[in-house]
Amino acid sequence: MTTPALSTARLSLEPYTPGDEEDFVALFQDVRVSRWMGDGPCTEAEDRALFGRIFSKVYARDLFDVWAVRHEGRFVGH
Prior knowledge:
Layout: E1 6-7, E2 11-15, H1 21-29, H2 31-34, H3 44-59, E3 67-71, E4 74-77
Antiparallel strand pairs: 1-2, 2-3, 3-4
């Protein structure tokens, strides 16, 4: 099983690529967002490690699907 790309008329959900790391970290470092995710705000290093685990554990082992959400090609969410 591989994480599929999905799309609607407005959004696309795509598997993360290594190039998405800065956007991912910026999203998770935003306390308005991170307070609702997981255990709440984490350090930047912890968020970078989390991003790395998407590839080393989640995708590598086909555990579950994780997507970068884009609108008109721009990263807008997780």
